[in-house]
Write a structure and sequence with these properties.
alpha+beta; single chain; four-stranded antiparallel β-sheet; 2 domains; 136 residues; Immunoglobulin-like
C-alpha cells in the first residue's frame, strides 16, 4: 500500500509536470492537485471493495457506561442456518469485543447483574460497530 502511494506521488510530482504543458504555475499546481485527488480516490475505492464482499464482521465491541456489570448476549444465524450465540460479561466502565461473526440480523439482550433485562431488541450487523450501553 505504501509503495503504491510513493509510486503515485513520484509520478505526480516528477513526471507529470514534464509531460503536460501548462501556461502558468497556478495551472500546473491545479493539474497536479487534480491528479493527486484522483489517485487518492482510486486507492480508497479499491480498499473499500475488498471489505464489501466479506461475509463476516471483524469486530463488534460493547462499552459499558453503567455503574454495574452487564451480560450482553447476541443470537443469530449464519449462511448455513447454524445458530450463532455470543455471550459476554462486561464490567462497569469496561469494553469487550467479539471477533469474526457472520453478517446478519441478531437479537440482542442486555442483562443487569441482578438478572433484570435492561434492553432487548434486534440489530443488523453489517460492519464493525461499537455499542455504548448507558442510562437513557
Amino acid at each position: 500500500m505504501k509503495t503504491k502511494l510513493i509510486l503515485i506521488l513520484a509520478i505526480t510530482f516528477f513526471m507529470l509536470p514534464s509531460m503536460t504543458f501548462c501556461q502558468s504555475d497556478i495551472e500546473r499546481a491545479l493539474k497536479a492537485g487534480e491528479v493527486l485527488l484522483t489517485s487518492f480516490s482510486i486507492i480508497k475505492s479499491s480498499g473499500n471493495s475488498k471489505k464489501s464482499g466479506s461475509k463476516t464482521i471483524s469486530s463488534v465491541c460493547i462499552k459499558n457506561r453503567l455503574h454495574e456489570k452487564i451480560t450482553f448476549t447476541i443470537k443469530g444465524k449464519d449462511d448455513q442456518d447454524n445458530l450463532v450465540i455470543k455471550k459476554m460479561v462486561v464490567q462497569n466502565d469496561g469494553k469487550e469485543c467479539v471477533f469474526n461473526i457472520p453478517k446478519g440480523v441478531y437479537s440482542l439482550e442486555i442483562l443487569l447483574s441482578n438478572k433484570e433485562v435492561f434492553k432487548k431488541g434486534e440489530y443488523d450487523f453489517d460492519e464493525d460497530v461499537v455499542i455504548s450501553v448507558k442510562k437513557d
